[in-house]
Amino acid sequence: MTTNNQSFETFPFAGLALDPIHVGTGGTRLGRVDNTIVRDPVTRIPKIPGSSLAGVMRAYVAMAKGKYPDCAGLGQPGSDGTGGHCGKTDCPVCTVFGFAKGIGSSGGFAGLAAFSDMHVLLFPVASQLGPLWITCPMALWQANIAEFSELSDLTEQQVVYRKADGTAAPPSLNLGWLFLPIKPYPAQLDKIAEKIDKLYIPNYIFNRMGVVSDKLFTHIVNSNLEVRTSVAIDPATGAAEEGALFTYEALPRGTVLFWEVTCRNPKHFRIDGEKITAVRTPDDVINVLTGKGGQSNHSPHDYLEHLGIGGMGSRGMGRLRVLPPPEECADSDKPGKEDS
Q1: CB atoms within 10 A of CB 21
Q2: DSSP of 71-122
Q3: 196 and 206 Cβ atoms separated by less than 8 Å
Q4: Gyration radius of the chain's alpha carbons
Q5: What is the mean pLDDT of residues 169-194?
Q6: CA–CA separation, 24 vs 308, rounded Å?
Q7: 14 pairs with which residues across the strands?
Q8: Is 122 contained in some domain?
Q9: How many domains is the chain partitioned into structurally?
Q10: What is the DSSP letter of 309?
Q11: Same domain, yes or no, for 213 and 297?
Q12: What is the pLDDT of residues 37-68, one digit of tens each?
């Protein structure tokens, strides 16, 4: 709970990809895949930019609050001067996400919610034991789950894994095209697992988790992305159109993503000299995003689960389920509880 004088509060979230997710780089590239997805420039691990998340969440909050389409999108008024962001102090969309006053006009408001990039926390990989979810020290550190020192003895050519049923794990394990020896399960991983569990990760994922080095994680992720091929159809012949074949990649279904939303205290801001009335605390700001306490039949996270994020939505991509915090749901209702 936020105090009245606290300047901001950061809220962690985890999400499960129900479909492959494609957030493209905005053009075709020379290489194995024509349409590539966004990657971190240093680690080369795919991510979803915070701007992409903020954009779709603004649209979905506007839908849930009955403010669509005027307060969604760029908010530029039409040629007749109508439409665009309302910019009112009692508007939950304009206060939480900010607004612009139009081209050539000064002013505006930056918004009370700031979205981090969405990073891969657990990545699904095929193995001889079935699907496993792999992570690395860097991903755990970015999610404030573990310090680097807790897994400092992890070598590049090993995987940390234990079988969920408590029986002995095999001496070696394949992760896609890699075949690695299994490292004995360290005791400190139990504490790390407890923190991951607090993100409401389903038990069928939680019980199939492995850890590899940061260097190996990059290779595993980029070698196991989903790559699809599409082609345009000539309406006259019903056959493939010449020269219209292209490929595109995506984060596979089952990927667990982690991100944070930092909410500023509305008491510290004014719009045209007036107090913000739509939200009064950082907790109110996050409630606008999650739909908690709202009157709509659908929360913004419901729209994210059904309408998705990123491109290729008409090709079966984009749906993302935000995993609820454990304090909002009974432990018996936890997804996958029967699998534990």
Answers
A1: 28
A2: TSTT----TTS--S----TT-HHHHHH-B---TT----B--SEEEPPEEEEE
A3: yes
A4: 22
A5: 83
A6: 14
A7: 258, 323
A8: no
A9: 2
A10: S
A11: no
A12: 999 999 999 999 999 999 999 999 999 999 99
